[in-house]
């Protein structure tokens, strides 16, 4: 369904298990950034009522996920660390087209968002199927379903708002680009790292 070029090596979970506090902190900040992204889409596209409505739903869900991760961190006696840079997302951001019409920029921002959600969904699936901690396995299985819904929402809006863009062609370019950079990741105890 996700069409990603390269699957995450399940051994990445061994790295994650070596530092649960780090993955949870990184995950919390990923949720905060996802909520901020949805709110930015609202801010810059306030005239698109259907998009605004759905982005507000996503922003709320992402904040709920942040709350869930924070609750898990507290329950385990851990500490929410400082925000981390997400080098994977930063590389994807550089690939995003910033020229053309407002609609063109919106469509690429939606594809950028779909790409992040697709990889997050895939990583949560790998965690849910391979982590020994049963509470975390269930937690990530539930979040995987939510991320898949966000992925399809972003992709659906890109298709809806395209003007002169071949969205399927551009999505394939995103998939190819992501496949070329993901080989640099999966080596640290972060969601995308």
TrEMBL record:
InterPro entries: Ferritin-like, Ferritin-like_SF, tRNA-Hydrxlase_MiaE. It comes from the Bacteria. One of its GO terms (molecular function) is tRNA 2-(methylsulfanyl)-N(6)-isopentenyladenosine(37) hydroxylase activity. GO terms for biological process: tRNA modification. Pfam families: MiaE (PF06175). CDD domains: MiaE (cd07910). This is tRNA-(Ms[2]io[6]A)-hydroxylase. The lineage of its organism: Bacteria, Pseudomonadati, Bacteroidota, Flavobacteriia, Flavobacteriales.
